[in-house]
Design goal:
Strand content: 5-15%
Structural class: alpha+beta
CATH superfamily of the largest domain: NADH Oxidase
Radius of gyration: 21 Å
Number of domains: 2
Bound molecules: flavin mononucleotide
Length: 380
């Protein structure tokens, strides 16, 4: 996977680098779910650094590329899982040196860009590199049993972002907890591709969920993170497990309060954060992780994007809908939580509820030639 930052920057400016990295996480999730539906496997090839990856992809050819494309991630997809010998797990370029011949020039997307965002280039350079070994301790939860809530293809192809929510809908407790359960590290899609300790921990702003007081909640995705978050956040937070929470879920109530206005405000005043059933912030372990290896700045965003993708599909599976939120005020969030250091940093937000469909917008299947129209319907 590679990113062309300009494709986000023309619209989002400096935020483009982060959005591209979040999109890498979403794309990784999409690949993992789709591969799973076909009986294929997906694995990350971790021991390749950014420069080597750019060479493999041919995007380091400065004459043919204007330097706008960034190598992100190498993924192995096996159509017969387990059949590839370890020695063959690298593309030929990496194994035999650069014998490939490249052809073609990347087109110049915008020869006269109206704005330039030099920080994108800077952060891209500063975060080149690779992972350094796997963390030793990963708490893995037991596999989750499938439910018969729908065909994977229907859920995947039906996924869209909600644009507005029904501000009165009360979400069932079972749906809510199943969604959170889908964010735990376990040998199921999409988490079986993520062989790293979880670093990103949702802080939830619950508005309307059956059996839960409206308020602020936390889902630290590993035990040590719960202690660290507790030490860093406001001293008057409760840290109590709600009565109806499944015992295995590390889910804590921090504060009972109506947080609809605050959620909307801190998400760039977007109504989707206050009208939903709940919104969340993905608080990441940050400063120590990124200082030790700046490349992890990318990797943390991939993890957040992966969480976002799991949430999109979990919401669809429950007959609800989600929207990723990249526009938010991180300082305001940190202040609400009492965070005064950069030990934790919010990287991505999300919101889920019952969508209101805008009838003025027509939706056609993305790939009509590859899908069969339902009985009685025809597509143009
Ligand atoms: C990283 C990311 C950030 C996003 N930020 C916002 C946002 O702040 N507000 C919003 O309304 N939608 C946001 N979205 C939703 C996108 O607008 C939406 O995914 C895109 O228009 C494609 O539509 P689809 O998700 O229905 O396929 C975001 C999506 C992603 C992946």
């Amino acid at each position: 996977m590679s990113s062309v930052h300009w494709r986000e920057a023309w619209k989002y400016g400096e935020r483009a680098f982060r959005y591209c990295q979040l999109d890498v996480g979403h794309a990784l999730g999409a690949l993992r779910y789709a591969a799973g539906a076909l009986g294929w496997s997906v694995a990350l090839i971790e021991d390749v650094d950014s420069a080597e990856l750019a060479t493999m992809m041919g995007i380091d050819r400065s004459g043919d590329f204007s330097g706008n494309e960034d190598a992100d991630l190498l993924i192995e997809i096996e159509t017969a899982p387990g059949s590839t010998p370890p020695a063959a797990r690298r593309p030929p370029v990496a194994r035999h040196g650069n014998e490939s011949r490249w052809a073609g020039q990347a087109n110049l997307l915008d020869p006269h860009p109206f704005y330039r965002w030099p920080v994108i280039e800077q952060v891209s350079r500063a975060t080149q590199g690779r992972g350094t070994g796997l963390p030793s301790e990963i708490q893995i939860h037991p596999p989750r049993h499938p439910t018969d809530q729908g065909r994977a293809a229907d859920i995947i192809l039906g996924r869209r972002s909600a644009q507005r929510f029904d501000g009165r809908h009360l979400m069932g407790a079972d749906s809510f907890y199943r969604m959170l359960d889908g964010l735990l590290n376990r040998p199921n899609a999409p988490w079986d591709v993520w062989r790293f300790a979880p670093r990103v921990h949702p802080i939830l702003f619950v508005h309307r969920v059956e059996g839960l007081d409206p308020g602020v909640y936390a889902l630290p995705r590993h035990a040590a993170a719960a202690d660290a978050l507790r030490a860093q956040m406001r001293g008057d937070f409760e840290w109590q497990s709600p009565d109806n929470a499944p015992a295995h879920l590390p889910f804590y109530r921090l504060l009972c309060t109506d947080c609809r206005v605050i959620a909307q405000t801190m998400n760039c005043h977007q109504a989707i954060a206050g009208d939903s059933c709940f919104a969340l912030s993905m608080l990441s372990e940050f400063e120590p992780v990124v200082s030790a290896n700046p490349w992890r700045y990318r990797q943390l965003h991939w993890e957040a994007g992966l969480i976002g993708h799991a949430l999109y599909l979990e919401a669809e599976a429950q007959g609800l809908r989600g929207t990723g939120i990249g526009c938010y005020f991180d300082d305001a969030l940190h202040e609400v939580l009492g965070l005064t250091t950069t030990r934790f940093q919010s990287l991505y937000h999300f919101t889920i509820g019952r969508p209101l469909i805008d009838d003025r917008i027509s939706t056609w299947p993305a790939y009509p030639d590859r899908q069969v129209a339902p009985p009685g319907e025809s597509w143009p």
